[in-house]
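Supplementary Text 2. Reproducibility record for the structural model of the 166-residue chain.

All settings were left at their defaults, and a single model was retained for analysis rather than an ensemble. We include the record here because the model underlies the residue-level annotations in Supplementary Table 4.
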Amino acid sequence: MTTYYSATGLIAPPTMLVDAPPLVAPSAGGRQMLDMTGLGEVVVGAGKSKNVDFAVHSHIFTRGLFNCFAVCAVWEKEGGSFKKGFLAHISMPKHSFFKTSLASIPKDAFVACSVGAGLWGAEIAQILEDHVPAANVWIYTRPNNDDHVGFGIDRGGRFGETLGKG
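Retained model, structure tokens:
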């Protein structure tokens, strides 16, 4: 079953890992922030995507989500780190780019998706669940939609927001 998390910005959440869903869905709480330490790979703009080699990069992220959403995937875990990752910055679930992007994600990958408040969470989850097991999917709802909010994932499977333009 897909795991949902709504960030309110009020109370810091426990660390959430894409491959360790909680037994009980987490209650709404604070933003989970992506650790931007190390060399990151960035995806700039809607309709763009990248694969990442986590032997080289510590994380992958995008910024300026506004009404867009980000789909992050990781796979090939060795020890505590994933070897491969992917991120797509997508404007809407019905856009052909979303389904085309899924071809870059293996069927056994773990996926974290950041959506804006009130935007498409269930619809996106259904599309993702047709590609990877529902137990491998997180839907993370951001508390606001603006051009200063981004999202990403690191080699350990920790996903979260990025704040600030740049």
